[in-house]
């Protein structure tokens, strides 16, 4: 099993131990997290749904991200990641939601928001959502996206084991 597959398996086992479902809200990964999760046999008992919200309109319509947030902070921001995670939790039957929004490249970066910048959101029922900022090395789009999947799963595992 690959490293991502092993992390997905650990995350799903943590969900099963807590008797909760999971949801994802993905932008820069385009569904890679939910794909890695659903590659695991039996995952249907721990996975509720995945939202692929690549555009701002999708973030607004599917997750309830505020247009004001997107205008003020942009899609790749702490506020957007928090709202994505909270929206995925609220619009699903999950007890935990993982959200990612970032710049995977090769273009789209700026001095303020360079390629490799990813904001992670995590929401757990009964707790305020949290966000983390990571700046990955610009070793190509696939590298950044895979690192994003790895980090999101690690955050989920940490949240469920505490």
From TrEMBL:
Highest taxon of the lineage: Bacteria
Pfam families: CinA (PF02464)
Cross-referenced InterPro entries: CinA-like_C (IPR036653), CinA_C (IPR008136)
Domain CinA C-terminal per the UniProt entry, residue ranges: 7-155
SUPFAM superfamilies on file: CinA-like
Record's protein name: Nicotinamide-nucleotide amidase
Lineage, opening ranks: Bacteria, Pseudomonadati, Pseudomonadota, Alphaproteobacteria, Hyphomicrobiales
